[in-house]
Amino acid sequence: MKRMILAASLIATTTAFAAAQSKTLPGEMKTATATVEAIDHATREVTLKEENGEYNVVKVPPDNKRFDTIKVGDKVTAKYYDHIVLRLKAPGEKDVDTDTAAVTRGTTGAGGTAATQRTITATITNIDMKVPSITFTGPNNWKYSSKVEDKQALSKVKVGDKVDIVWTEAVIISLESPGK
């Protein structure tokens, strides 16, 4: 979500956006690995030790049928990816505010995939050419302001313009037992 908010400010940082009416901001794949340190079967909680030495407790949902296969010492790998598309809306085009999610379980081992896609319409509510900066507002009192590096691109949008922001986040989790 933080990346989406930061990326929303980029709408006015790219001259190509104003000309093309759409801008894709591909995310980066991030990978994190942790080791299972403890398992509480009664509460379905797994304590993970991250590579940086920090500990996190993760609650495994009851519908995860592979919980009983997890063992202390197993390695859990999570790959995270996000992707953002920004589109300048035509005047009078209907606002959107949607959120979809999907979860799939792996066929072997204790892994799976979770993904969400959120689409909102944000309105440019302030442009300050002196800073330079831009402010957006959206549904549910969402508000974001950011500095903008490209004044020329900023000059191509105006207060009241609306932008659809579509961001997709996905995580792939896999479990590997020691010795595999």
The helix/strand class is mainly beta
How many structural domains can be distinguished in the coordinates? 1
The succession of helices and strands, N to C, reads: HHEEEEEEEEEHE
Helix content: 10-25%
Largest sheet: 10 strands, antiparallel
Taking pLDDT < 50 over at least 5 consecutive residues as the criterion, the unreliable ranges are 1-20
Number of helical segments? Answer: 3
Mean pLDDT: 81
Shape designation: elongated
Compute the gyration radius: what is it? 21 Å
Ends apart, CA distance between termini: 35 Å
Strand content: over 45%
- The tally of beta strands, per DSSP, is 10
What would your notes on this structure say?
It is elongated and about 60 Å long. Strands 1, 2, 3, 4, 5, 6, 7, 8, 9 and 10 form a ten-stranded antiparallel β-sheet that branches. A hairpin with a 4-residue loop joins strand 2 (30-40) and strand 3 (45-50). It has helices spanning 2-9, 15-20, 151-154; strands at 22-26, 30-40, 45-50, 55-59, 75-88, 97-105, 112-128, 133-137, 143-147, 162-176. The protein is mainly beta. The chain is built from three helices and ten strands, in the order ααβββββββββαβ.
Topology diagram in text:
Elements lengths: L1 H8 L5 H6 L1 E5 L3 E11 L4 E6 L4 E5 L15 E14 L8 E9 L6 E17 L4 E5 L5 E5 L3 H4 L7 E15 L4
Antiparallel strand pairs: 1-5, 2-3, 2-5, 3-4, 5-10, 6-7, 7-8, 7-10, 8-9
Supply the key terms.
mainly beta; 10-stranded antiparallel beta sheet; 3 helices; elongated
Write a brief caption for the model:
It is built from three helices and ten strands, in the order ααβββββββββαβ.
